[in-house]
C-alpha cells in the first residue's frame, strides 16, 4: 500500500547490493511513496551486484562512491543535488563490513589492519558522510538521516565479533553529530537497530541461522523482515516524525526488551 509519504522528497540511498539488501527494499518502497533519489554503492559492489535493475525499476541514477573516501562522498553529494534539482531531504546509510568476520578471525585474535578497515567502512564512514553533508549544507531543514545498526552494540553476541564495536561507534556518532545537525540545520539523525535479517552482510556472521531462529523465538512479534525495516525507515524520512532525533530505535519485534520467552523456556526443559 502507498500513502504518498515521501512525495516531493529527494534523497540518497547507500548499500543496495542485491534484492535481499535492506537498502534495496527501502529504495523500492521510497519510490512507491513518491520519493526521488540517487542510488550509491562502492565501485566493487556495483560490479558484483545487480543495482542497475533497481535503478531502472525506481527511475533513479547510480553514482559510485566508496563511503570511506571523502572525495567520492563530495562528488556524490554534489552530483546528487544536480540530478535531483535541489538539496536533500533524506539519506540512508546501510553499510557494514568486517574482514575479521568474513575471514573467520576470532574476536580474541584480531588482525588489526582488518579491524581498522572494518571500523572505517562500517562506522567512521557515517561520520564522514554526515560531515560532508553538513559542510556542503546539502540537507533541507527537517531532513532526516538514518543509519542501520544491530543490538550487539549494547549486548554481547559473541560471533558478531568486531562489528559489535563498530555498531557502538556508529550509534555514538549518530548522537554526537545529530546534536550539531539538529541545532544548526534542523536535521534529524537516528539509527535503526534491526532484527537479524537474511542478507549478504547478515549471512556472513558465523552461526547466523541459529541466531535468527533464536531471535524469532524470543520476540513476541517475531523477527522484523527487510521489507518491514524499509517501511519503518520511511516513517523516519517522512514529516510524521519531525521531532525524533538522536535516537537508537529498536525494530526487532520486541526482542531487545525480552528476558526469556515461553518457547525458549520449553526448549531448555526438553
Ligand atoms: N542483515 C542483518 O542481520 C542486519 C541486522 C541489523 C543491522 N544490519 C545492518 O544493515 C545494513 C545493511 O546491511 P544488509 O543486511 O542489507 O546487507 P548487504 O550486504 O545487502 O548491505 C551491506 C552494504 O554495504 C556496502 N558496502 C560495503 N563496503 C562499502 C564501502 N566501502 N562503501 C560503500 N558501501 C559499502 C555493500 O556493498 C552492501 O551493499 C548494515 O549496516 C548492517 O550492519 C543488518
UniProtKB/TrEMBL annotation:
It catalyses: a 2,3-saturated acyl-[ACP] + NAD(+) = a (2E)-enoyl-[ACP] + NADH + H(+). It is an enzyme of class 1 (oxidoreductase). NAD(+) binds at residues 15, 21-22, 95, 167. Pfam families: adh_short_C2 (PF13561). SUPFAM superfamilies: NAD(P)-binding Rossmann-fold domains (SSF51735). Its EC number is 1.3.1.9. The active site is at residues 150, 160. Pathway: Lipid metabolism; fatty acid biosynthesis. Gene3D superfamilies: NAD(P)-binding Rossmann-like Domain (3.40.50.720). Keywords: Fatty acid biosynthesis, Fatty acid metabolism, Lipid biosynthesis, Lipid metabolism, NAD, Oxidoreductase. GO terms for molecular function: enoyl-[acyl-carrier-protein] reductase (NADH) activity. GO terms for biological process: fatty acid biosynthetic process. Belongs to the short-chain dehydrogenases/reductases (SDR) family. FabI subfamily. This is Enoyl-[acyl-carrier-protein] reductase [NADH].
Amino acid at each position: 500500500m502507498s500513502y504518498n509519504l515521501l512525495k516531493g522528497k529527494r534523497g540518497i540511498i547507500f548499500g543496495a547490493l542485491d534484492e535481499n539488501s535492506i537498502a534495496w527494499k527501502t529504495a523500492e518502497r521510497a519510490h512507491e511513496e513518491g520519493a526521488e533519489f540517487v542510488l550509491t554503492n562502492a565501485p566493487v559492489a556495483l560490479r558484483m551486484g545487480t543495482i542497475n535493475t533497481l535503478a531502472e525499476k525506481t527511475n533513479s541514477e547510480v553514482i559510485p562512491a566508496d563511503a570511506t573516501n571523502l572525495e567520492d562522498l563530495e562528488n556524490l553529494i554534489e552530483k546528487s543535488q544536480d540530478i535531483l534539482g535541489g538539496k536533500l531531504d533524506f539519506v540512508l546509510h546501510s553499510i557494514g563490513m568486517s574482514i575479521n568476520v568474513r575471514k573467520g578471525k576470532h574476536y580474541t585474535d584480531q588482525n588489526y589492519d582488518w579491524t581498522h578497515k572494518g571500523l572505517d567502512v562500517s562506522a567512521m564512514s557515517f561520520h564522514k558522510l554526515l560531515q560532508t553533508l553538513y559542510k556542503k549544507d546539502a540537507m533541507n531543514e527537517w531532513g532526516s538521516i538514518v543509519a542501520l545498526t544491530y543490538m550487539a552494540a549494547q549486548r554481547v553476541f559473541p560471533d558478531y565479533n568486531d562489528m559489535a564495536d563498530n555498531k557502538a561507534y556508529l550509534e555514538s556518532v549518530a548522537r554526537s553529530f545529530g546534536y550539531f545537525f539538529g541545532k544548526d540545520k534542523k536535521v534529524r539523525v537516528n539509527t535503526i537497530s534491526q532484527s537479524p535479517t537474511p542478507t549478504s552482510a547478515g549471512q556472513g556472521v558465523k552461526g547466523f541461522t541459529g541466531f535468527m531462529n533464536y531471535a524469532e523465538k524470543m520476540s513476541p512479534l517475531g523477527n522484523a523482515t527487510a521489507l518491514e525495516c524499509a517501511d519503518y525507515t520511511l516513517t523516519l524520512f517522512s514529516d510524521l516524525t519531525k521531532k525524533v532525533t538522536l535516537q537508537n530505535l529498536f525494530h526487532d519485534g520486541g526482542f531487545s526488551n525480552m528476558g526469556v520467552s515461553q518457547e525458549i523456556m520449553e526448549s531448555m526443559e526438553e
